[in-house]
Amino acid sequence: MQPKMIDATLSVSPQVSIEDVAAIAAAGFRSILCNRPDGEGADQPVFAEIEAAATQAGLQAVYQPVVSGKVQDGDAAQFGAHFAALPKPVLAYCRSGTRSATLWSLSEAARGRPLPEILGATKAAGYDMGGVARRIANGGRTPTDIADATHQVVIIGGGAAGIAVASSLKARKPDLDIAVIDPAEIHYYQPGWTMVGAGVFDPATTARTMASLIPSGVRWIKAAVAAFEPDKNAVILDGCRVVKYTSLVVAPGLKLNWAGIEGLTETLGRHGVTSNYRYDLAPYTWDCVQGLKAGRAVFTQPPMPIKCAGAPQKALYLSADHWLRTGRLGDISVDFYNAGAVLFGVKEYVPALMRYIERYHAQLHFQHNLTRVDGPARRAWFTRTDADGAKTKVETAFDMLHVVPPQIAPDFIRVSPLADAAGWVDVDQATLRHKTLPGVYGLGDATNAPNAKTAAAARKQAPVVAHNLLKDIGAIMGGDAVYDGYGSCPLTVERGKIVLAEFGYGGKRLPSFPSWLIDDTQPSHLAWLLKERMLPPIYWKAMLRGKEWMAKPELVQ
Predict the structure, then answer these.
(1) CATH number of domain containing 451
(2) Which domain does 235 fall in, by range?
(3) Model's pTM, two decimal places?
(4) Is 308 one of the annotated active-site residues of the chain?
(5) Catalytic site residue from 94, 240, 288, 308
(6) Counted domains in the chain
(7) Is the CB of residue 122 less than 8 Å from the CB of residue 105?
(8) Catalytic residue among 34, 94, 240, 489
(9) Which residues does the UniProt record annotate as the domain Beta-lactamase hydrolase-like protein phosphatase-like (predicted)?
(10) What is the pLDDT of residues 27-47, one digit of tens each?
């Protein structure tokens, strides 16, 4: 965290960590203003954690969350009011610092500060507010007739899907002009976090710099998306910059809605409340598992859709396996509260999973959706829905609580012309073209295709999008590439064994290996070795490099 001074009273910064707060106080800041909503990133501490650390350090902390790219005049006025009331100097932060700089610029312009002074101060701090100046001059709107950048292909998102499709496009047409838009500096191998939570992987092995993964010849625009204007082939970024395109690929991932469970953000990472769905919390899961000698361990699963539908129960299996191996399972009650009606959506895998549920003496509670947590009291509340649709409240105590948050499409997607009624990118499930917008494609977790949201799905989707995009612009010939809904969920049922669930649309099994090698319906040590030793290098060195091993798309006329 490197604060960037706007003037003597304000500095802005990218996301701060809990550990940064003491250094912020030591640097002479007297208050912190957070402009980043909880749940934007998988490595982001919630504001309640920052606020607690700030209070301990003698700092005042204020939470003014502003959706990325959705800075309104009212937000700027509120920022100005907070800034005026807070002890100086103030450190304001968001994901990259751009949002906070934009809020300051707009609030200062409303107060009558000359634009050249605003642009000079922000430029000296490393933030280009030229787009903000155009917005001010245009009466509060960002004009899209002037582009700050133009590319043949613009890809939204530098996660697994975005990098993979960029690499697949470059592999097919090396001279293609591509830009990837993503504000994150770190790219995460999120499938590894289950293993981090079980003490198998070191968390550092699941993270690499974004700069090291952007394919050669692809421009990285380090910014957040504010809005889409597909009728003008334009994307508006934080800071009101405009990027134009010929083809648009949308792969921003999804949003973890931690705030969707009352009391959760205040207790994450403390009081035995953890989640493998956040980079900095997965190690705490392993701490909780090792530290629990007796009591009740509760594991939860929210309503679909979620990233990797098997991940909630993977945490249960690996934790219970550790307690079994260390002789503690007899003193620990294991409960799985699932908002759904079944253990797993593909019936062929359920018998093997049920044998492990019985082995660990786990109690299953279906149609139970976590709604509230009280960490200090070690209590959790669920809404239970019976067969007739009637709802009742269920309360339980816990000594360890592994939470999977509800998950939604990113805010800038849900309010965009790209979204369906539920907020997801509206694509044809076979070709992954947008259903109504020519030249727009979607893949990864943010689409409404009815497939499992896994990295394995993105691995198969990327070549489909690459082929169809290039076909549509006349760069290649042939039929359409089609996606069959493939997804994979390596269910880690114990340390050293995995049920390698692979399936497509409609729950159809799509095993990659012959049954004599890996029987996907049974636990297998070979599948464990695939997950532990082969899949990470396949991810880093093949999928993200455009090498489509076992991922060549099927073509149809």
Answers:
(1) 3.50.50.60
(2) 149-254+409-556
(3) 0.87
(4) yes
(5) 308
(6) 3
(7) yes
(8) 489
(9) 6-110
(10) 999 999 999 988 888 788 889
